[in-house]
Amino acid sequence: MLCLRYSLPLIPNRFQSFDTTRNTKSCVVVCAAKGPRPRYPRVWKTKRRIGTISKSAKLVDCIKGLSNVKEEVYGALDSFVAWELEFPLIAVKKALRALEEQQEWKRIIQVTKWMLSKGQGRTMGTYFTLMNALAEDGRLDEVEELWTKLFSQYLEGTPRMMFDKMISIYYKRDMHDQIFEIFADMEELGLRPSVSIVNMVGNVFQRLGMMDKYEKLKKKYPPPKWIYRYIKGKRVRVRAKNDNEAGDVNSVASGDEEASHDDELDGINDVASGDEEASHDNKLDGINDVASEDEEAFHDESEVGIRIDANEVGVETNLSSNDFSVEANSSLSECQNQDRLHWEHNQPSGVSNSS
């Protein structure tokens, strides 16, 4: 016989756990202010310019009402960039430009030094802005310290605008020995001085009565006939103005970027005036061409009219001559008929019949 038995049910242990399918996702730390943040370091830099104008305006408003205490200004700047994933370099540069337009030299010095302390924006443009602000604020010793550090570190890589700035700073303060030292450094490095540098050094030679050195300087560095300006990012060739050297020196010795901005505007005006003159000349040429074309057309029409008149006169003379010949022929035929009738009337009948 078959015996059917049921197996006992398997009762699992309460403390035994079963493996189920789990959703294995990477753990992400969520920040309450800015949302999820990645756990890996960022190895790229973004160049987004959207929103940088408003951000720079907020930065200016954030630090403008503060005192000149270093800790207070640095604390406000740190809190401003606290939640940024990367340093807002473009916004800070625009804020520096806005402060420079407002001539807030102390704020420019504070923001620039704070940015350099963060290891950001270490470019020659930043150092130039800092040097200009220090000079305008009257901190000549810090300017000389910064210049010595940059010149000793970069040497041949120092741009010509830095030499120009230092010579203009010393030129405003009548520090002739320092001007000669920087100019000698330029000649040793083989760096050709600009027109403003040559004019300032030449004026110093004239003040000191060194006319022989002045003549040698003008002979070695004659004024160029053409100069190049950067207008809207394009290199434009503009004719140089060498008549008002004193005015150029005073404009360069002002020590800010308004001189370069004025030069760019002069270049734009020169180009615009050249374009206006060219357009005016083109208009005059067009008017002359139209006038010459009108004269030629009028001359052609007059010739055609003369020819038409002559043809009409010829036709009229031909018609008149033809009419005269027809009338003469008709008169001759009438005379011949009358003579024939008269002759037939006078002859006898037999003759006439025979004839």
TrEMBL record:
Record keywords, A-Z: Repeat
UniProt xrefs under PROSITE patterns: PPR
Membrane-traversing stretches: none
PPR repeats (start-end): 159-193
Region entry Disordered, spans: 242-285, 330-355
Acidic residues compositional bias, start-end: 255-276
Gene3D superfamilies: Tetratricopeptide repeat domain
Skewed-composition ranges (Polar residues): 346-355
Listed PANTHER family: OS01G0757700 PROTEIN
Name of the protein this chain belongs to: Pentacotripeptide-repeat region of PRORP domain-containing protein
Organism whose genome encodes this protein: Populus trichocarpa (Western balsam poplar)
Taxonomy of the source species: Eukaryota, Viridiplantae, Streptophyta, Embryophyta, Tracheophyta
